[in-house]
Amino acid sequence: MTTFMATLDTPQRAYQAPCPGCGAPVEFRSAQSAFAVCPYCQSTVARQGETLSRIGKMAELFDDFSPLQLMAAGKFKDQAFTLVGRLQYRYREGTWTEWQAMFDDGRIVTLAEDNGAYVFAEPASLQREAPPAASFRVGATTSVGGRQFSVASNEQVSLISAQGELPHLPALGAPFAMVELRNADGVVLSIDYSRTPPEVVMGTAVMLDALQMSGLKEGSTKDEKGRQFSCPNCGAPVAVTLAASKSITCRSCNSIIDLTQGLAAEISHAEQHEPVKPLIELGTIGQLQGLSWQVVGFQHRMGHDPQDSDEQFGWTEYLLYNRKRGFSFLVDSEEGWSVVKPATGAPVLNESGQNATYLGRRYNLKYSYEAETTYVAGEFYWQVERGQKTFNRDFESKGSVLSREETPREVTWSAGDKVDSEAVAKAFKLEARKDLLERADASPVSASGGMGCITVIVLFAIIMVMLLFLGRCTRCDPARENCASSSSGARSAGGAYGGFSGGGGHK
Fold first, then answer.
1. Which one of 82, 290, 358, 497 is most buried, by most CB atoms within 10 A?
2. Among 294, 314, 295, which Cα is nearest to 304's?
């Protein structure tokens, strides 16, 4: 039996006792905490009244790029909190972290973190018994407390590691269901089936800057000493920059290397041929929309009409990283450039699928199509593969863009804005090559303001093509068929607007 010792130098009474595994001090700051992980020997310690017992050993934490760490403090709705615990989960496409935030009154809530996006969530109720996880179909809608939600994901997940003190601790490595609902107001509702009855939490997105955090980690990358290895295909040296990367490409042979199983010699890879050269070099740092971004990944994608696979178009996406904002996508298509990131909420589609409403704004459907990843380079925080496929819908509203990507397990919405090609050239110091970056956002009228004969001929040709195109569209279903596709490739970036397959829509 272990007796607790009260400490008085914290806002709430804290209790400290020797670890049953190694004897080092283990502290409980909240009465809600039933478990803790010893910071010295990683023993999992259970608390029952005033006794501690060792129930196992926790796996080492997966080191990531997060600026958060235990004992970092901040404010949420003018209430001070401290991060006292951390849970790391894995699902099919990647990992995410849930931090246990303790308020000064002893309450513990969840600060979920997924690749730079943050959701502050508190305990909630479905106001009815939680249905089986299998009854939630991805993409379907349901009502909770009189509010409409969309089923964003239904995944089998497992705990891979934990740290600090925790009110609840799922069995290490044991899979369980996690269902996530989202709505057009940006609300996220998660149902955790690792316990009975299932635990429900509800929250909204927060910006890290708005939490006024102190005690953050100084760096966000892992020591490169242990992150260099030889390519399993060609033997060339490969260096990992971001600790959270799940995939990386070899710059010598273009192979895609899977990092999810560690940096062992048996690491898996897939060869790539016909490389696509990005216009913005990997590693480039630029100032875009008032923030500093580094280009860490690049992928080329192809889209086609579900009814006619011969009608194809292509676009490219640059994965951008900022320490406090996480990841965004700079999308390059024939119709122009856009900057987008995964939306926290789930926009509402009307019955016809022709419109979507998000955060009080209405967007109109522009394209629907099937998409496939054809080439990747750099690092990615999800396990990217050639051949990954999604069904996409793109929407627009006065310069803003919205994209929906669907797989059997997850629906991901991305939102953002179009940007001028000159802004992209200036951001990444590519003014000398700005002609290569010009897209449909460039004016068809000459600098003098006059319209030359050639321009008139071109416009006439465009009008004739549009008339033929309108005639074709009267015979198709725009809700599922890409009426606007053409073999010329002059199409928007669909998920395009920044959507991506399996790239962290969860959480």
1. 497
2. 314
For residues 269 and 385, give the distance between their C-alpha atoms in angstroms, rounded to a whole number: 10
> DSSP character for 167?
S
| Beta strand ranges found along 381-502 (DSSP E) | 389-397, 400-406, 411-419
Does the CA dihedral 53-44-84-180 come out positive or negative? negative
The Cα–Cα gap between 434 and 449 comes to 21
Q: Please, which residues have CB within 8 angstroms of residue 311's CB and are 6 or more apart in sequence?
A: 304, 305, 482, 485, 486, 487
Residues 6+ apart with CB under 8 A from 153: 138, 178, 179, 180, 409, 410, 411, 505, 506
Residue 321: how many CA atoms within 13 Å on its side-chain side?
A: 23
> Which SS3 state, helix, strand or coil, does residue 428 take?
coil
Judge contact between 89 and 114, C-beta under 8 A: no
On the 0-12 / 13-18 / 19+ scale of CB atoms within 10 A, 8 is exposed
For residue 486, pLDDT beyond 60 = no
Name the token pair of 495. 């998920």
Cα distance between residue 333 and residue 491, in whole Å:
7
| Mean pLDDT across 266-295 | 82
C-alpha torsion angle, residues 362, 367, 371, 374 (rounded to 10) = -110
Contacts of 390 (CB under 8 A, 6+ apart): 370, 371, 405, 406, 407, 495, 499, 501
Q: What is the DSSP string of 108-165?
A: EEEEEEETTEEEEEEE---SSPPPPGGG--TT-EEEETTEEEEEEEEEEEEEEEEEEE
Is residue 247 scored above 80 in pLDDT? no
| pLDDT confidence of residue 133 | 95
Cα dihedral: 381, 178, 122, 7 (round 10): -80
Whole-angstrom distance, CA of residue 365 vs CA of residue 418: 16
Nearest to 392 by CA among 255, 490, 494: 494
Question: What are the residue boundaries of the structural domains of the chain, listed by start?
Answer: 5-57, 73-211, 224-434
Amino acid 169: pLDDT: 86
